[in-house]
Amino acid sequence: MTHLAKLTFKTVDRSTKRDPIIARRDKLVAGLKEQKLVHAAATKKQDHRAERHKWMTNDMGERVLVKTHRTVRPWFFAQDSGWYVQCRYGARVIAADGTNNAVFVKSLDEVAGVLDAFLNAAAAGELDGAITKVAERQPRIKPGAAKAAANA
């Protein structure tokens, strides 16, 4: 008896597709967790820097992996004698309630509560519709095409 005869063989097609809604939700949750770290650094009056790895060429011409830091931009800012908190997906701002794009709070300490609320809402799937709307690519309209469509 051979060694392979003891094994059970089957033919299977591996499914590598991931639900895009779940993938977007996970991306937003990761961004919100990072913003909580940004808020913690802001309360200490520091910048939050995230470590990333980057391939660079050194003096001898070799490609080496280098650790660098990037500053993470906060999703909250001071204005109108208070703080505005926005929820972002990539570079785009999400209209979390459907119409407004920011939450206003009186102090920097209250920003953490808003970030927690966004995090819980994203994890529960409450922001899936808003994320899908923002994630869809808008068709670019060329300046001359708008005139041509209006004249036609």
UniProtKB/TrEMBL annotation:
In terms of superkingdom, the source organism counts as Bacteria
Source taxonomy lineage?
Answer: Bacteria, Pseudomonadati, Pseudomonadota, Alphaproteobacteria, Rhodobacterales
| Full protein name | Uncharacterized protein
Where does this protein come from, organism-wise? Nereida ignava
